[in-house]
Amino acid sequence: MIRVLLADDQSLVRAGFKALLDAQSGIEVAGEAADGEEALRKARELRPDVVLMDIRMPVLDGLAATRRITDDQGLEGVRVVMLTTFELDEYVFEAIRSGASGFLVKDTEPEELVRAVRAVVEGDALLSPGVTRRLIAEFAARSKEPSAAASLARLTEREREVMALVGIGLTNDEIARRLVVSPLTAKTHVSRTMVKLGARDRAQLVVLAYESGLVRPGWLG
C-alpha cells in the first residue's frame, strides 16, 4: 500500500486529491496538512511514502518544508512531489535541488496524478509530461554556475553519457534508443550512476548534471 500525505492550504484541493487517490487500488491518503509546519510534523509522525506538497503555504512554505523533510535522515524513504499552479513556477527548480522528486501542476489530469504517485515510489522523477525539457532548460538557466565536480570522476564514460541524457530529460526507453541498448541496460546505467553520486532519484541526477557542467542550459539534445 502506497501511503500519501496531502499538504495544501486549500481544503477543497485536498478533498479532491483525497477522493481521487483513495479510490485507487494500492494507494491511501494517510493524512493531511494545511501548512508546511504541519506537513513536516505529519511526515515525521506518519512516515508516508509520498508527500504531495503545495509550494505556497502559510507558516512554513512548501520549499522550506521539503528541504527539512529531505534533510531528515529519519525520513530518508519519504518522497516529495511539489504542487504548483503554474507550469513555470519560479521555485520549481530550487525545489528539486532541495530534494523534491519532481512536481505537478494542480490541474494535471487525474490519471497523471495517480501515475506520478506510483512513479516516485519506484524511484522515477517527475520531470515530464509535455513540459519537461522546456522546464529543465528554464530552471537550469537560473541555477548556479557549474562547479568542478570531482564526484564525476567516479563514473565511467558510458555512465557520464547516460547522466547527460537523463539531464536533458530523456526516459530510459529514449536513452536505450539513443545508445542502441536495451531499456534494462539503460535503467541499470542510470541506477549505478545514482548510487555512485548518492542521488536520491532521477530528479537529483538532473540537478547534478547541470550543476557539474556536464549538461548546459539550452542543450536539449
Automatic annotation (TrEMBL):
SMART domains: HTH_LUXR, REC. It holds the Pfam family Response_reg. Transmembrane segments: none annotated. This is Response regulator transcription factor. PROSITE patterns: HTH_LUXR_2, RESPONSE_REGULATORY. PANTHER family: TRANSCRIPTIONAL REGULATORY PROTEIN NARL-RELATED (PTHR43214:SF24), TWO-COMPONENT RESPONSE REGULATOR (PTHR43214). The keyword Transcription regulation applies. Coiled coil: none annotated. Keywords: DNA-binding, Phosphoprotein, Transcription, Transcription regulation. InterPro entries: CheY-like_superfamily, NreC/VraR/RcsB-like_REC, Sig_transdc_resp-reg_C-effctor, Sig_transdc_resp-reg_receiver, Tscrpt_reg_LuxR_C, WalR-like. The modification 4-aspartylphosphate is found at D54. Residues 148-213 form the HTH luxR-type domain. Residues 3-121 form the Response regulatory domain.
